[in-house]
Amino acid sequence: MYDIIIIGSGVSSVFTMLKLDTHKKILAIDAGPSMENRLVQPSTTGFGGLGLSEGKYNFSPDLGGNLSSKIGENLVIKHLSEVEEIIDAFGGQSALTYQSHADIENDAFIQFLDCPTKHLGTALSKEVYNNIFAYLSTKIEFRFNNTVTNIEKTGDTFQITTSENNIFHAKKVIVATGSKKNPLLNKSFAKLGLTYQKTRVDIGFRIEMLSETFDPILQNNLEVKMRSGNLYSYCMNKFGRVIKRNLHGRVTPEGQNSREDKPSKNGGATF
């Protein structure tokens, strides 16, 4: 019997684990590969989820989902600060850190945002999450390559069944399966009275151009954050490059900062 079972070990689960009372008996189950395998074979699932990709953290309540409307902007800012402290504590102090300033005059269509950013890059992201895993694995049990197929509740106990025909029991369950829904759990959710809610999903496009083209906008900044209505820029790489990323069977462009390799003559922005 476990005190807590966590389904999924992506970014949200990792930071949840770090906040839990590790004196409790905790199990984390993930459909993806182990941390060891992720370090040698690219994957978007497994421990750390997409956190092992480019490792770019935008510490602004203006970007991302609508968490501010649920818990308030001040609490969001507090949690964002805690995330940065955790990253630094596990080896991320050398990350490229900068501030996007709203010091360019806004017009009727474009608003420039203040946004502190920490850009780890792929190599440092792997190092940080490997350090986190090394720490958590001494306190939490992990089961990888196990897809949860059923959740049942009897009295005060949950029964978890996986694709490997493993059965586990827990007093509490945290479901954090990420952006890729598990249809096998739909019946379980219905029985438990759990429902899906619509949320914003960002679909972006990437623009590559000569780095000098960015100069009138960037000026002396490494990056600026721009917003126009519900459209905004969330990634800008001066002298960076584009790499391919496989996400749920689709190949998507990913901006990589110049510290991963020698600088290119191109700059790129994702909107």
Automatic annotation (TrEMBL):
Region annotated Disordered, chain positions: 249-271
What InterPro entries is this protein classified in? FAD/NAD-bd_sf
Source species, domain of life = Bacteria
Q: Which Gene3D superfamilies match?
A: FAD/NAD(P)-binding domain
Q: What is this protein called?
A: FAD dependent oxidoreductase domain-containing protein
Organism for this UniProt entry: Listeria weihenstephanensis
